[in-house]
Amino acid sequence: MTSQTTQIALNELNLKSKKMSFLPSLNGYVNYGWNYFSSNFGDLYKTGFGASALGLTLAWPIFTGTERIHQIRQNQITLEKSKNDLSYLSQQIKLEVTNANTQYLNNKSRFTTQKTNMGLTQGIYDRIVLKFEQGVASSLDVISAESELKQAQVDYVQALLNTLISKTDLDKAMGKIK
Questions:
Q1: How many CB atoms neighbour CB 118 within 10 A?
Q2: Residue 46 DSSP SS3
Q3: Which H helix or E strand runs over 47?
Q4: Are 160 and 111 in contact (CB under 8 A)?
Q5: Alpha helices of 21-138 — where are they, by DSSP H?
Q6: Which of 34-38, 40-44, 79-83 is predicted least confidently?
Q7: Can you tell me whether residue 30 is helix, strand or coil?
């Protein structure tokens, strides 16, 4: 049970208690004892007389002011606020999970794209190096292809890192990691 649901249960019990104060109350009592009387102190506990009382008390609150009515209204508002807070918290958690999941899927897709781009850039680099070795391409082409390959590798590693971070954020939002 979370603290929010515990608070709601306590507020419900408090409201119920305030509403019950309008009901009549019936109390019962029983008293029993012994009374000892004597004109001499030495004979005090020789003769005792039993005494008992049995009774009921009915209290019916006809009008006790409007304070209880206002307290009941206050408790109803507090209960509704607690329920709204729990609903808000639930919606915030759902939103956080949805956002984390969307971010993870986007980063995963970006990772796949960068992996493909790196493979294509590696193929272009290999062909330009082969052309350079055959004398068809210039060293400027090789340097340019190498620069593009390095950038594709950096983009791939960055996409991998972002995917791992977003997966951790998703697990955290779902409560798998504290």
A1: 19
A2: coil
A3: none
A4: yes
A5: 67-134
A6: 40-44
A7: strand
Output the six-digit token pair for 135.
């004398």
Query: What's the pTM value of the predicted model, to 2 decimals?
Result: 0.64
Answer yes or no: is pLDDT of 86 > 60. yes
pLDDT, averaged across the chain = 90
Helix-then-strand count for the chain, H and E: 3, 2
What torsion, rounded to 10 degrees, do the Cα atoms 97, 101, 103, 104 define?
130
| Residue bearing tokens 């390095």 | 150
Lowest mean pLDDT among 34-43, 45-54, 90-99: 34-43
Q: Note the pLDDT of residue 45.
A: 76
Q: Which residues contact 125 (CB under 8 A, 6 or more apart)?
A: 145, 146, 148, 149
Residues 6+ apart with CB under 8 A from 75: 11, 14, 15, 18
Tell the residue number behind the tokens 């419900």, with chain if given.
12
Instruction: Kindly list the distances between the CA atom of residue 12 and the CA atoms of 74, 84, 85, in Å, as whole numbers in the listed order.
Output: 12, 14, 15
Token match 């019936």: residue? Answer: 26
pLDDT of res. 44: 74
Maximum pairwise Cα distance, the chain:
141
